[in-house]
Diacylglycerol kinase
Amino acid sequence: MKPLHLTGDEPFFIVLNTGSGRDDASDVQATIQRVLDEAGRRYTLMPVDDGRQLPAMAQEAVARAREQGGIVVAAGGDGTLSAVAQAVLASGLPFGILPQGTFNYFGRTYGIAQDTELATRCLLAAQPQPAQVGLVNGRLFLINASLGLYPQLLEDREAYKRRYGRSRLVAVWSALVTLARAHRQLTVHLEHEGHVRTLRTPTIVVGNNELQLEQIGIAEAAALQQGQLVAMGVRPVGTWALYGLVLRGWLSRLGDADHVFSFGFEHLTVRLSRSKRRIKVALDGEIHWLDAPLEFRVSEQPLQLLVPPPSLRAARA
């Protein structure tokens, strides 16, 4: 693909999810407007207050950006960035982000700050850089996709956030509570490189974010640099063993655990032993029902992500 180069005059079409993120939506919107007005940059804010509206608004942003030679920008949490990126990917348009999520793994990987003012100022000087994305049955994910226990963790985390607010401490506490409950084991068949592997596990997670994999201690994180995704899972264990795995993740040693398996791949088919037509899958923190089997692969077309110049990039930590 021919590299894109921006002149700095392209208009921004900013899809802003006012229902996501840790900061007050009105403050976020005011900050974006102030920074872009001061810079004299053309832009259109396209706010949505319901996540179900995101796909349609993202498609509208893509259409308008195509007509006017512009840039599509997503402002919100991981689910918002993923939903807008889904619409942008096939268009080949440049894609900017203003991260508002709790962990901001995707933005941190590319040095994009979570502070709205700083991220908006960096957006003005950013240039497109190819960013790998994963696909499962054609649906895009930026950070990870999962089935089994992990989607339940995410659903419980969102319930806790609605009750207690958005913070990393709330996210960790909700995970500990969820793990204390009994969980059904999945019998899965993994088809990879001509081989079929059958195993029982509470969860399968497919990662596409080097920073997240490094932080929990998965050695195969380097596989992402070779254009692969990384599959992870846990063999059947009890509650206390699950707590031990969480602790290992905090200490960046999850990959050393005997109960954990992981491997890099370019294409992976996941089938469940029970003849389910639909499977609950979490994509970047958002729950979807997808047709079985699940086909995971790296997208042949990368995102043209706007990345700040090295001097303006935020620390990854």
About this structure: The longest strand covers residues 186-192.
